[in-house]
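Field log, afternoon session.

UNIT: design team B
ACTIVITY: writing a sequence onto a fixed backbone
BACKBONE:
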């Protein structure tokens, strides 16, 4: 094989490498710009939202008997058990109410147990 064929092989390999790197760079720049556009749009939507209403977001957080973290260590075990069971029942009823409402909105049949008929 003559010496100039090696030069042609290396020139072709180098050209392919440079072409690949340029195309990969263009691809990454375009994806990065699209990401920045989406992030800008999302931040714009967040900025346009009114501030959240004051107060807790969940019903179980609204109870006045909400204790500070760690206070259960020194509390009466019977009282803590009763509060836990009451909270568990409130959460169960809340889930049932949401399920009944969701099924009503979708036009799905209701469970007799959910309606309190069983």
């Amino acid at each position: 094989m003559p010496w100039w064929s090696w030069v042609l092989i290396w020139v072709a390999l180098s050209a392919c490498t440079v072409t690949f790197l340029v195309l990969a760079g263009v691809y990454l720049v375009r994806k990065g710009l699209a990401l920045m556009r989406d992030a800008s749009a999302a931040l714009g939507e967040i900025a346009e939202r009114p501030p959240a209403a004051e107060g807790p977001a969940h019903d179980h957080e609204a109870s006045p008997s909400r204790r500070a973290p760690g206070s259960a260590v020194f509390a009466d075990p019977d009282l803590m058990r009763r509060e836990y069971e009451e909270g568990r029942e409130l959460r169960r009823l809340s889930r049932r109410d949401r399920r009944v409402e969701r099924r009503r909105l979708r036009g799905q049949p209701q469970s007799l147990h959910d309606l309190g008929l069983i």
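LOG NOTE: The two ends are 92 Å apart (CA to CA).
NEXT ACTIVITY: expression trials, pending approval
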